[in-house]
Design goal:
The protein is mainly α. The chain has a single domain (about 1-55, about 75-550), classed as Sodium/glucose cotransporter (Up-down Bundle), CATH 1.20.1730.10. Helix content is about 75%, strand content about 0%. The chain is built from 21 helices and no strands. It has helices spanning about 1-20, 40-60, 65-70, 80-90, 90-105, 110-115, 120-135, 140-145, 150-185, 185-235, 240-250, 265-280, 285-290, 295-330, 350-400, 405-430, 435-460, 465-485, 485-490, 505-525, 530-550. Helix 10 packs across helix 16 (about 405-430). The longest helix has about 50 residues, at about 350-400. The chain is globular.
């Protein structure tokens, strides 16, 4: 810790110098492959990198304890935290991935966004207050409060780490493709740049730096997407009907893009996507972890309320931007290579739209914002992953709740480094997948493992440790197993001709299986531990009520 205090300024400076040297020093790319240098994108990118590293330096002066590292000392206001939560959710998968799906399939691209947004009322009314009242650093603290600590935490860490790693893939693919398009860097080098920056944010600034990076990014993203939406409407006479008509006239599928069925024709597939997104958002460890960064339950509720407002506004504008990509990008030869493929891939449709609407300046701004989006979300995921290992596993299980604070912080930074390396490797493996589709996979695990255990630990006194562990195992094995057997992995990645399970996102089946296993193994549990678990529920309610009245 003492060495960190003396050397972090130098380390952060080296991070900035590394990125500055790598980016302009390469064969910097161009918008649409036109051959010119996109100086606005480079300048805005470097300004953001410098600003966020300064935030990390500032936060490092205020981060020395576990509480400060994991939860920013609980001193973030409801409005600030709401913006940060919204920033966590308005990720590359949302901005780049969903707009790309709308570009290719129209209405069906909205399914992912609609499902995710539907989960926010549940977070606001059922989770935000009790999670804040009962936990300390992570949602695992809540689950382990009345259950047997060791087994519960181990199974919860399994769910958390799995979600974090899978969610990292989508963010790294989006960032790698973006930098590859803008700066001409090899994709793998782009991933290394991203990883170095995120490690600097998290290792030195912790949750305080991550929160403020998220706030800055959320404000910039909302501003940028507002400008893009206004320009789209301006160029269509401020008529949404005209926008849709022109999109239908331009797209190869015609009027079909204005209704369901282009991408998904099976209603069960649509239903399971909606379930995965709706309940998956309620089990994301980096979202739940932000409920602990505020001082009390009232501010936690305000966080969820403001986040809902920001995210709702974002998705409304994303509809305009998504159909705008169809109108202003489709058919423009500037954005396609000789083979007829969109330069940078479908995930870059929104970036091309920004240039079509506002030239290289808007394109540079939105590129920098998209990059900021990815960096901030990856930082939040990395904090959550580090907390799961260092706090939930090391401090609470291995050290039985009495860790050496210096060793815990040191382990946290080592885990941060390990996650950075792993993110680069996974980004290479999954570089050709749509990021919105990849990002939906961890939602299945979150909905099938984390959410059932969390919600029942707070609202059903009959749940026992045996039931929680059994339900989490059933949810984890079934969700991972069915996703591997589904089209996204079995066919697209493993190369088999036909999937053994027909649906990509099986939460419609795996989440009820987890709930059923929790119920069955709890009601049949006659052990002494089960009696303790059920009696402890009344004490949990009393604790929650006491915190609510403060």
């Amino acid at each position: 810790m003492i060495g960190f205090r003396h050397n972090h300024r130098t380390t952060l400076s080296c991070s900035l110098l590394l990125c500055t040297a790598l980016l302009p020093g390469t064969a910097l790319a161009t918008v649409g492959g036109g051959g010119g240098l996109n100086t606005s994108a480079i300048a805005l990118f470097l300004v953001f990198v410098a600003a966020t590293l300064w935030i990390s330096y500032w936060a490092s002066q205020r981060t020395s304890t576990s509480s400060e590292f994991y939860t920013a000392g609980g001193q973030i206001t409801g409005l600030q935290n709401g913006a940060a939560i919204a920033g966590d959710f308005m990720s590359a998968a949302s901005f780049l991935g969903i707009s790309a799906l709308m570009y290719s399939a129209g209405f069906d691209g909205l399914i992912f966004g609609l499902g995710a947004f539907a989960g926010w009322p549940i977070l606001l009314f059922l989770l935000s207050e009790r999670v804040r009242n009962l936990g300390q650093f992570t949602f695992t603290d809540v689950v382990a409060l009345r259950l047997e600590k060791r087994r519960t935490r181990i199974i919860a860490v399994l769910g958390s780490i799995s979600v974090v790693i899978m969610y990292l893939i989508a963010q790294m693919v989006g960032a790698g493709k973006l930098i590859e398009l803008l700066f001409g860097l090899p994709y793998e080098v782009a991933l290394v740049v991203i990883s170095v920056l995120v490690i600097a944010y998290v290792a030195f600034g912790g949750m305080l730096a991550t929160t403020w990076v998220q706030i800055v990014k959320a404000v910039l993203l909302l501003f940028g997407i507002t400008v893009m939406a206004v320009l789209v409407l301006y160029n269509t006479g401020f008529s949404f009907e005209t926008l849709l008509s022109r999109a239908a006239a331009t797209h190869a599928e015609g009027d079909a893009i204005l209704q369901p069925g282009v991408l998904y024709r099976d209603p069960i597939q649509v239903a399971t996507i909606l379930v995965s997104m709706m309940f998956g958002i309620l089990g994301l460890p980096h979202i739940l972890m932000r409920l602990f960064t505020v001082p009390n339950a009232r501010e936690s509720r305000r966080s969820a309320f403001y986040a809902s407002l920001f995210i709702g506004y974002f998705y409304l504008l994303l509809i305009v931007v998504g159909f705008g990509t169809v109108v202003f990008v489709t058919g423009n030869p500037k954005y396609f290579d000789e083979a007829g493929a969109l330069i940078g891939g479908g995930n870059m449709a929104a970036i091309h739209l920004a240039e079509a609407l506002g030239g290289s300046l808007l394109m540079g701004f939105m590129s920098a914002v998209a990059f900021a989006t990815i960096l901030a979300v990856v930082a939040g995921l990395t904090v959550a992953g580090a907390a799961a290992v260092a706090h939930d596993l090391y401090a609470e299980v291995i050290c039985d709740g009495k860790p050496d604070p210096r060793k815990e912080i040191r382990l946290t930074r080592l885990v941060t480094l390990g996650l950075g390396v792993l993110a680069v490797a996974l980004g290479v493996v999954f570089q050709h997948q749509n990021i919105a589709i990849i990002a939906a996979l961890p939602m299945v695990v979150a909905a099938s493992v984390n959410f059932p255990v969390l919600i029942l630990s707070m609202y059903w006194g009959g749940m026992t440790t045996r039931g929680a562990v059994a339900g989490a195992i059933v949810g984890f094995v079934s969700s991972i197993g069915l996703m591997v057997l589904g089209p996204n992995v079995w066919v697209a990645i493993l190369g088999y001709p036909q999937a053994l399970f027909p649906y990509d996102y099986p939460a419609l089946f795996t989440m009820p299986a987890a709930f059923a296993a929790i119920w069955l193994f709890s009601v049949t549990d006659r052990s002494a531990r089960a009696a303790l678990d059920t009696r402890a529920y009344s004490q949990l309610l009393v604790k929650s009520e006491l915190h609510s009245n403060r």
